[in-house]
Amino acid sequence: MSAIASVRVPGLDARAQVWRDPQGIPHARAESSYDAFVAQGFVHAQDRLFQMDYDRRRAYGRWAELAGAGAVAQDVQMRRFRLAASARADYAALDAETRAMVDAYARGVNAFIATMSEPPMEYGLLGTRPERWDPWDACAVFKVRHVLMGTWQLKVWRGRLLRHLGAEMTARLCPGTQPNPMLIIPPGVEYDDGVTDGFAALQSCEAALTAMTEWDMGSNSWVVAGSRTASGRPLLAGDPHRALDVPNVYYQNHLACPDFDVIGLSFAGVPGFPHFGHNASVAWCVTHANADYQDVFIERFDGNGRYEFRGEWRPVEAWRETIGVRGAAPVTIDLAATHHGPIVLGDPKTGYALALRYTATYEANPTFRALLPMLRARSADELEAAMRPWVDPGNNFVFADVHGAIGYRTRGRVPIRNAANAWVPVPGWDGAHEWQGNIPFEEMPAMRNPATGWIATANSRIIGRDTRHYIGLDFAPDFRTRRLVERLRDLKSATVEDMAAIHADRVSVPARELIEILARVRPSDAASREALDLLLAWDGVMDRDAVAPLVYSAFRERVMRSLLTPILGPLAGEAFGGAPRGAVAHMARLRARLGEMIRRDDRMLLPAGTDWPTALARALAEAVADLRSKLGDDLASWRWGRVHTTRPEHPLSSALPGAATRLNPPRVAMGGDAETVQAAAFIAGAGYTVTNTSVARYVFDLGDWERSAWVVPLGASGDPRSPHYADQLEAWSEARLLPMRYGWSRIRDEAETHQALEPA
Fold this sequence. Notes:
Blueprint: E1 4-9, E2 16-20, E3 26-29, H1 33-60, H2 64-67, H3 72-81, H4 83-92, H5 96-115, H6 121-126, H7 137-144, H8 152-173, H9 199-210, E4 219-224, E5 235-243, E6 250-257, E7 260-267, E8 276-278, E9 282-288, E10 294-300, E11 306-309, E12 312-315, E13 317-323, E14 331-338, E15 341-347, E16 352-358, H10 371-376, H11 380-385, E17 395-401, E18 406-411, E19 426-427, E20 446-448, E21 454-457, H12 479-489, H13 496-503, H14 509-518, H15 526-536, H16 548-568, H17 572-575, H18 582-592, H19 594-599, H20 612-631, H21 640-643, H22 660-663, E22 680-682, E23 690-694, E24 697-701, E25 709-711, H23 729-733, E26 738-739, H24 744-750, E27 753-759
Parallel strand pairs: 1-27, 3-6, 10-19
Antiparallel strand pairs: 2-3, 2-27, 4-5, 4-21, 5-23, 5-24, 6-7, 7-8, 8-9, 9-17, 10-16, 11-12, 13-14, 14-15, 15-16, 17-18, 18-20, 22-23, 24-25, 25-26
Helix pairs in contact: 1-5, 1-7, 4-7, 8-9, 8-18, 15-20, 16-20
């Protein structure tokens, strides 16, 4: 056992203790729930204070105050979302015990700020100090982590296509989901109902969008029932997919008091364990549901501070804000809002602009009221009931309890409205697209103890179109879901090790489909023949040390770019750009349909007089030539992991390039891609660098919590000088899991440090 160190913590009622395990992960124990959240705020700030400040400043549009002129555009967009006002409104509407939780957490953060011997190194580089933490800052941090995960950018992109290409071509390029998607409910079932046709909805909004001037602009989880596990109790596993932030978005920690004993992954800056965790009785996890809870309204303005609604002209809410800029003059911006929400794109002075209506911001958001009941839940029923106040984000919520129950629920608030709202920005002036309440909690998709003995989610379609309510349109292709189903169907006596093996699955379903098709292609030169032979002999596994995954990725991207550039015209640059916006997401979904289009000989994308074998042969030759120019003529020396690497960048590294080597963690080569269970997405327009990946992996073993395991891409600490800044990187890159210590005797025996938090 390590020696104890003490610190006086203002705000505590009684002594709390923190043990840090060999990975530096804090395990905090307090005498009351109030003190537990003071302790959680303290340890979050101990490890991640600058990250918390970064998220808070992003939410409030104040990042340029530290990062300089390069951050102004981001600050402008965030000011338009009005997250600051929304966060304060959420806090004001909290019930007493939830507010007490948030207040206690803020006191813990401020206690660390008041007692720290020196601020994190980033403040030293900037010559500044952290500001006081307000309770509503937690609400703002939670919002900024989710506002860009919704559907609004996808709708805006379809709107741009509609203006340039018309309703018919847009409907063909932007279907809902691919045919026969593998559903979540019921598990493992293909939904045979073709592709959603949005022509009518698009056509109804075409005139309104044409009137506007131009404007600028993932995850796996599964649960296995005790009938299929070695212990006879459930296993719950998964891995959330997000951008690889520095420090990592999720923070491993453990919090206990007489009311609960919970271990899991938190957002630094937010109390509790909103997405992943377990207590003594239940475990929970999420993936992004791709539910549709953000609408974009085209507002019509008269030039005199008014906008039109149902034949009347209403006053626009308008105000001015100033953005401070490090090393430059402040920037003053004009902002506006209608009853639909804030103007997020366009300028009302032009006569039209786009307003965002978002469940998390258009009224007070009670999501935080779910956090305490989650921690206290003693059964699957109690845990599911705790989700009633949840608004945002919309999640596939998967859970299990020690009594053997497993379950699924689409959690979050989804509005009821016109079908056209699903597709593009809709007219705000006619009143035909207003929200008509929300889908009742009891009518959201849910499932308990399916006969399959497992549930799998991977952002694909949740339920068939015969459901009563519209949930969403923009689901991910079902390739990862299919692989999960293939692996789970074969399990008989599953263990944590079996779950970890699923985490490491790098089989690409679309690659295997394309390999079958390529047998019909006649190469145009010797280099193409060598590459084609390599692909035809490949098993479709995206290993980092293999050559074929690189050739496949370059080839498929060349096919898409060659065929769509003439169709998209001036929009092609955005579609194949380097920013993960709505255009890039739509191209990824269209790319996922490529194999099916070729098999059906659908020539929609082909130039007149061209067939698929010809187009594919040309694309293969161009892809190989491009790779040779970058990697040399020796194909045998190429490797997927040579170009497909992580590039984690601290948010200050671009503003302070001289400090980048001290701030940025090491890179690692990665296997997989966006369509494999071991996720490692890239944006081809920006090269093959990994953009989104598994930002945590976990397995909760409800038969014995001590067998549970996890790993994150970097480490527990946010301090670049700490040995725990990136000490989990090697295990993560190899898809290995590390111990998740839960028993307190084990925690004490194996602790690296022991700290006593004493009342001041």
